[in-house]
Each structure stands twice: as structure tokens, then as C-alpha cells.
Design goal:
single chain, about 375 residues, alpha+beta, 19 strands, elongated, binds zinc ion
Length: about 375
């Protein structure tokens, strides 16, 4: 067995790879090298099967027996934006004043390094697990996720690789490590509403058909809709109008059409189909012709709180003294793909600075997360 993996040094190495989606920039290789050093078998899965640029993904497994416990995450990061606005080079991975700086420190290279650090310490202290440990790593989470976790899971299916439980390391804690475990996420879909009429002179409205009063009425009906009151684990579903576009620069012209875009974050009262049916019914009852298209980002999903969530909660409490709450808030994540294969919960670093200028995390949090992940492994293989 080689020396234990230092999670801070590994996180720095990962941050120094400018892996802005879809670029890999060596990040998957850094992880694969560290995991091979621990005895893992690494499968590099490059995919462009769903269109878009080719993406590097990694499936790494230690052991061949069931149960197979997996950590999941992504090596890609969002762009640094205005690099001149950063105090340090966003890809320097510098440690200053007890904090690790750089794009991806919080979301989520720090957590990836904590996973590898935790596995290395677990192996040193407990030896080989009675079962397997896997890592499901994608390079396409921050983008459209076309060739990322979906492709990885498809590859695993066709190669007989089964996962029994999964912890995804997204930054789930809003401001303090130990406060929040995600057990599901709301669904997300975007509606594009178009109302058409006949263009004309405002002074001769009888010769035109103004679509905008209809658009206003239809939007009023959508926003007046009370979708639900929330469910046991979810906040109420919510519809937000995000754009109304007419593009009319003249004040004496009745426009030919008007468009609006709205996004809905929905709980498990609905799926995308039942929600679409309700919205169309509401618009039909309001009256007037319209066109409506939907883009679905993801259905809502939930891993009902059970053994896995409890293990993560107890391991967290042991290290931080805090008992994390179970939450389903925030945007969607790759757990939307994984939950169809096995129970999945999400727990990672503090997300306060994610996607921002000067992204950083406390070194102490990376160390604590390493201990928490190690505690999860101990509990999982003890209970198995
Ligand atoms: Zn992320």
C-alpha cells in the first residue's frame, strides 16, 4: 500500500487542471492515477453518443464483490469569468489563510479529493472492504450533461456494473459544513409561450389583431395558478416568468406576436407530463390561441430518508457535532440520473462561493469532509 492520499494536495492538483466544461485538461487522469495507486481498476469512458463535444468520464472500482458503494461527482467546472477580477489565478489552487482557492474548490474538486483521501484512510485502517468501492466521475455536469453521468450509467449497465448505494459530493451545505444533506431535488422545466396576431397600425386596431392582451391574460392565469402546498419532503412547486419578449421598437405598430418564457421548479405532486397537462388546461380555459413548447431539465426525485441518509447524517454529526437536515432545495444535480439505479444522497462542502469569483473553501472543511466520508464507508461496510 502506498502512502495515504493527502486530500488538500490532491484538490490543488485537480484545481490546476482548467477543466472548464467540456475540457478535461487532465483532471480525470489525476483522479485515475490516485485511484490506481490505491488498487482501483479504472475505466476511462469517453462519450459523444448523445451529440455535443466528447466528454471524459471515469468509472473506478476496487473489489469485485457486492455490495458496491459508490461516490459520485464531476471534475468539470464553470468558466472563471473575468480572471482579472480574481485575487489569485483561478487555476492556481493556492492555499492562503487556511483556505483553498480556485475554480472548483467548492464545486466540487475539494469533495473529489476528500473521497479519495477518505478511501485511502479507510483502506489503511480497515483493510479491503467486504464488498466494493466505486467512483462515478463525469466531466459533463456543469454543461448540458449529455455525455456525462448518463453515458457512464449506460456503460455500467451494459458491462454488468451495479451500484448499491451512492453519495454524490455536490456542495450541499449553504454556509456551514454539517447542516444539509440532499435527499432529492425538485424537477425543472421551461415553458416557451407564443401568442400570434396580425400586425397593424395602432390607429386602425380593427384591421389588426393585437396578441399582447391575450399574452397578458394567459400569463396572469399561469401565475394565479396555485400548484400545490408542498409535500412531506418538498417545498411548494413554483412557476416564475423569466422573460416577456415582443421586440417592438415602434409605438404606433401593433406587433404580430409576443413571447414569454417561464420556468417551473416542481415537487413530487407532479411529473412533467401531468404538469404540462395542467398548464395547457389552464391556458385553454383562459381562451385564445397560443403555442407552447417545453424543455425538461429533469423530473423531481427523492430517496426517502432511510439507512443511507442516516449513515451520512451520523458520520457528519460525529465529525462536526451538527445533525444535518434533509433537504430537496436548490437546482437539479446528476443524482437525477443515479437515483434510478440505487439510493443516492448528496453531501459535500459549503457552497457559498461556488460559481463565483474567488471560489474557495476552508482547508479544515476539506479535512472534515474526508473524515465524514471515511465514517460513511466504515458504517456502510459494517452494516453490510
Ligand atoms: Zn457541482
Amino acid at each position: 500500500m502506498s502512502a495515504p492520499v493527502d486530500p488538500i494536495a490532491l484538490a490543488q492538483q485537480l484545481i490546476r487542471c482548467p477543466s472548464v466544461t467540456p475540457a478535461d485538461a487532465g483532471a480525470i487522469g489525476v483522479l485515475a492515477d490516485a485511484l490506481e495507486g490505491l488498487g482501483f481498476t479504472c475505466h476511462r469512458i469517453s462519450s459523444d453518443e448523445n451529440g455535443g463535444p466528447a466528454i471524459e468520464n471515469l468509472y473506478a472500482r476496487l473489489g469485485t464483490e457486492a455490495p458496491n458503494f459508490a461516490f459520485a461527482g464531476h471534475t468539470d467546472v464553470v468558466p472563471a469569468g473575468d480572471t482579472a477580477a480574481w485575487k489569485d489565478d483561478p487555476f492556481s489552487g493556492v492555499v492562503k489563510d487556511g483556505r483553498l482557492h480556485g475554480r472548483g474548490a467548492a464545486d466540487m474538486k475539494g469533495a473529489l479529493a476528500a473521497m479519495v483521501g477518505a478511501i485511502s484512510r479507510y483502506l489503511e485502517e480497515a483493510g479491503q472492504p467486504k464488498g466494493s468501492i466505486s467512483l462515478l466521475i463525469t466531466g459533463d455536469e456543469e454543461g448540458k450533461a449529455l455525455n456525462g453521468t448518463r453515458s457512464l450509467l449506460a456503460w455500467m449497465n451494459s458491462n454488468g456494473e451495479k451500484v448499491d448505494a451512492c453519495v454524490l459530493g455536490e456542495p450541499t451545505n449553504p454556509d456551514t459544513l454539517g447542516t444539509t444533506i440532499k435527499i432529492g431535488r425538485r424537477g425543472s422545466m421551461t415553458g416557451r409561450l407564443t401568442v400570434r396576431g396580425t400586425q397593424g397600425h395602432v390607429a386602425y386596431p380593427h384591421l389588426a389583431d393585437n396578441p399582447l392582451p391575450r399574452l397578458v391574460k394567459l400569463l396572469a392565469a399561469l401565475t394565479a395558478l396555485k400548484l400545490d402546498n408542498g409535500t412531506e419532503h418538498f417545498d411548494p412547486s413554483n412557476l416564475e416568468i423569466v422573460s416577456i419578449d415582443v421586440g417592438n421598437t415602434a409605438s404606433n405598430v401593433i406587433p404580430a406576436s409576443g413571447r414569454a418564457v417561464f420556468n417551473i421548479r416542481f415537487n413530487d405532486t407532479y411529473n412533467s407530463k401531468s404538469l404540462e397537462a395542467l398548464l395547457r388546461k389552464t391556458l385553454d380555459e383562459t381562451g385564445g390561441g397560443y403555442e407552447l413548447e417545453f424543455d425538461l431539465t429533469g423530473e423531481s426525485f427523492l430517496t426517502p430518508p432511510g439507512a443511507l441518509a442516516a449513515m451520512v447524517a451520523t458520520a457528519t454529526e460525529d465529525v462536526t457535532g451538527l445533525r444535518p437536515a434533509y433537504s430537496t432545495t436548490g437546482g437539479t444535480s446528476d443524482a437525477r440520473f443515479i437515483h434510478r439505479h440505487c439510493p443516492v444522497v448528496e453531501f459535500g462542502l459549503v457552497g457559498q462561493s461556488m460559481h463565483k469569483i474567488d471560489e474557495n473553501v476552508a482547508v479544515a472543511d476539506v479535512t472534515a469532509l474526508t473524515e465524514i466520508y471515511q465514517g460513511v464507508l466504515e458504517r456502510y461496510f459494517l452494516s453490510g
